[in-house]
Amino acid sequence: MTCVIVDDEEPARQDLAWFISNFSAIRVVGSFADGREALGYLREHSVDVIFLDINMPRMDGIALSRTLKEMKTRPRIVFVTAHREYAVEAFEIEAFDYLLKPFCEERIVHLLGRLEASEKQTPTSGSIALRKNDSMVVVPVGSIIFCEAWEHELRVVLKQEEFRITSGISDFLKRLPPERFFRCHRSYVINLTRIAEITPWFNQTYLLRMQDAVDKIPVSRRHAPDFRQVMGIK
User: Fold this and answer.
1) Of 41, 48, 130, 213, which is the most exposed, with the fewest CB atoms less than 10 Å away?
2) What pLDDT, in 10s, does the model give residues 25-35?
3) Where in the chain is the domain with CATH 2.40.50.1020?
4) Which of 69-83, 90-104, 107-121, 167-181 has the largest mean confidence?
């Protein structure tokens, strides 16, 4: 895998490059101090991953990531920032992950492992077929808001409809992009890009309000540490 680092702080670029070189087989092919410079490079070169700071002069990370979304081959984006409040917006842009400064070695090593594992997986199609009555309906994967294990079925909820399919929640999760979908409870899988609100609950757990859905989704105590890590919550 190849990556570029985009951050206006040189020490941060150097630290990230050191971690990447020492804890993964990912190759750093470019290092840039602002978004416009990086965009010029990315229009001419294809890379697998971008480590992207959010607060930068000229073109910030959010603006650059929206521009990259229009490209035919879009790299995985890992946002890098000292500001937790950008987490929800980052996942709305379908970022692979969200890394907080100052860097934590354990967190970065875990992230690098996930990136390398994602490269080895067979890419998930942008659409998925779901059974409804006697036919199969093809829907965009990104339109799935959440899934709920419902008695002996799986309830798959979209904005304007839902499906009841015969599938275990673990088996269905394998059909979904791992960078976008997260199992937050033994009975629930959520689309990280469709989280609208995160409310702290008892025993360091959470309740989630999802975009275009009435249900409140629990994050169990077992899955809360991974959820905090994915969402950059301390």
Assistant:
1) 41
2) 999 999 999 99
3) 127-231
4) 167-181
The pLDDT score that the predictor gives to residue 167 is 87
SS3 50: strand
Element (H, E) at 27: strand 27-32
2-120: CATH topology: Rossmann fold (3.40.50)
Note the helical H segments in 46-180: 61-68, 87-92, 105-120, 169-173
Which residues are registered as beta bridge partners of 149? 154
Res 115 pLDDT > 90? no
**CATH class in words for 127-231:** mainly beta
32-66 burial code (b ≥16 CB/10 A, e <16): bbbbeebbeebeeeebbbbbbbbebeebbbbebbe
SS (HEC) of 168-195: CHHHHHCCCCCCCEEEEECCEEEEHHHE
How far, in Å, CA of 2 to CA of 101, rounded? Answer: 22
Residues 61 and 31: beta-carbon distance below 8 Å: no
